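Re: How this chain folds, sequence and tokenised backbone to follow
How to read it: Take the token row as a discrete description of the fold.
Start of record: The labelled sequence and token lines come straight after this line.
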Amino acid sequence: MSGGDMAKPLLGHRSTEGDCGAAPPGGRTVGVLGSGDFARSLAVRLVCSGFKVLVGSRNPKRKASLFPAAAEVTFQAEAVKKADVIFVAIFREHYSTLCDLADVLVGKILVDVSNNTEINHHKESNAEYLASLFPACTVVKGFNVVSAWTLQSGARDGNKQVLICSNNQEAKRTVAEIAQAMGFTPVDMGCMSSAREIENIPLRLLPAWKIPTFLALGLFICFFTYNLIRQVIHPYIREQKNKLYKIPIEVVNTTLPCVSYVMLSLVYLPGVLAACSQLYYGTKYRRFPDWLDQWLQHRKQIGLLSFFCAALHAVYSLCLPMRRSHRYLLIETAVKQAVEKKMTIWVEEEVWRMEIYISVGIIALGLLSLLAITSLPSIANSLNWREFSFVQSSLGFVALVISTLHTLTYGWSRAFDENQYKFYLPPTYTLTLLVPCTVIIAKVIFSLPCIHHRLLRIRRGWEKGRYVKFVLPSATGEFSSGETSSNV
């Protein structure tokens, strides 16, 4: 099958009058047991990849209209007899219905594509259970991480990897060739004991996002509570003013940038800690603590959550003038100005502060958008390592610096205004500056020539206290008595 054909969706090829056409003569015959959505999608992809497909069903006349015209729908026993490789596309609970075909299945390769409903639901994997039912067959686990949509739409529209495991190398090679012919990338996961892990993969719900999500939620709750005390509870206790209307929009909008800003700094803080560790021990070969390893591995998710909060902050900020409370306060200000007979309330410093604040914020959001886009696999795979490192590391640090400027222009001189300390609590933005400023100062220190050079040597393999002696040969080709050495 050509690469151009693989890119074309096959959603319109499910009927008996499909455009895939019959398999070319001499193509491998493959059997499919089952008539569900996955079995139908598998049959479509196999037919369009040049295979002769036999579909085994308990009611072939009723199910024939669901499959392509090029696929032969027959009884299970007939399909098993004519095919050497058989895809078992039925649920684990129905494996026992195939026991009547045990004699016909001897020597066949059975490809188990099933999944469980829960992680580690059974003591043994579905593939191992199938192998125990049919010991005379060779069972291969595969295609369970590929969705029916990917099979129909083409591998370019979904995950191209097909995880395969079996105790028989020849059977794995055969299934891998079929996967390649279908446009997928087979990945050898080893022996059958890996089937349990492969079956758990489709059941995991965003495993890499668990810790970053809880971190973001924890920060949101902390900052939300802090802002609630300052903006709602303090006016109610001290001035008997009801400010509860601020909770849905204003308090949330004050909290989101705090979370985004701190999360962005947490993307680059583990790199600072790793550099400190390498400088302290004088080697890059000492393993980091487990918590730091986990932190380094979750930087992508932390950065994307930072962008998500920043985007929400931008949307919430645009909605602030739409609130009825904002309109009332605007009218109230105008009335007070008229009563006091003020011609203007223009404050040059405040005007410039807000102009700079908004402009810098837009630039920061643009850089965060660029970081988020380049972290997507489809974009990241089109960049070489230097380009990817420049965007994620250099531009990312620039985004952190500009976000810091955005925060400082927002706060301006409020940190020195005693009226801003509600219940003696400092303004929220002063708390958010702690971690980012630490990261920025550390990055600046690491950029100093003396430290940068030492860190670069360590990352290129140099170790403190260890020397390798190189002996240079003499001009005659033999080692002289006064050999020249070099310490590295």
